[in-house]
Design brief:
Layout (H helix, E strand, L loop, with lengths): L14 H4 L6 H13 L3 H22 L8 H19 L9 H9 L16
C-alpha cells in the first residue's frame, strides 16, 4: 500500500488516484515526482538555503569553531546557493516586467457568455 492512506486528505485534487485501490511502488514514485514538480521555485530555494545553514552549522559545531576544516565545502556550496538565488529571484538591478502589460491582455479577453455545457453535465 506504500503509505498512501495518510496522503488522502492532503491531496484532494488527486482523489481519483487514491480511490482506485492499492498501487504499486512505480506508480507511487511517479506520483511523488509529480508532487515534487508542483513545488514553487521559491520554496525549493528556501529549502536549499535551510539545508545549507543547517549542515554548515553542524560542521561548525563538530569542528569547535574551526571553519578551515570544511571551508571548501562551505565556499563551493555557498556559490551554488547564490546561483540558485539569482536563478529564482533574478539580479538585484534587473527590471521586473511591467504589470500594465499584463492588464492589457486581460482587457482584450472575450466576455464570458455563460456556462460551457458538455455531455456529462446533461446526464
Amino acid at each position: 500500500m506504500c503509505g498512501q492512506s495518510r496522503y488522502k486528505n492532503r491531496y484532494k485534487e488527486q482523489s481519483e488516484f487514491f480511490n482506485r485501490g492499492p498501487i504499486n511502488k512505480r506508480e507511487w514514485r511517479e506520483f511523488q515526482r509529480y508532487k515534487r514538480r508542483q513545488e514553487s521555485p521559491e520554496a525549493k530555494f528556501y529549502k536549499h538555503l535551510t539545508w545549507y545553514i543547517a549542515i554548515m552549522g553542524f560542521f561548525l559545531y563538530k569542528n569547535h569553531g574551526n571553519i578551515f576544516g570544511f571551508f571548501p565545502i562551505a565556499f563551493f556550496w555557498g556559490i551554488g546557493v547564490a546561483m540558485h538565488y539569482f536563478a529564482v529571484f533574478g539580479w538585484p538591478n534587473e527590471q521586473k516586467p511591467d504589470l500594465q502589460e499584463q492588464d492589457d491582455d486581460i482587457e482584450n479577453e472575450p466576455e464570458d457568455k455563460g456556462p460551457n455545457w458538455s455531455d456529462k453535465d446533461l446526464v
